[in-house]
Amino acid sequence: VGSGLGMIGFDVNYGNPTFIRDGKNGYLVPIEVKEDSNEKIIDSLAQAIIRFFNDGPVDPHETSYAIATPYLIENTRQKWKELIEEVLHG
Fold first, then answer.
1. Which CATH superfamily includes the segment(s) 7-89?
2. Which of 17, 54, 64, 69 is deepest in the core (most CB within 10 A)?
């Protein structure tokens, strides 16, 4: 995401929804792990890939980079420093 790439991922409770804005920088593929067959899961992912290349977001780069900015190394380092300072010095 930090490189600004478009993304396709499963719409699960962690990870992907943090970085993928459906239709803006990629697609979130709905999934019901306990209910969906492997064939349905594979077909859904394949359809999302085809959709991305045929009709995908115009400029996923800008959106992906904006979403990733808070997670870049320098920003994460700064947040840790602030937290440590707050814990040590109140």
1. Glycogen Phosphorylase B; (3.40.50.2000)
2. 64
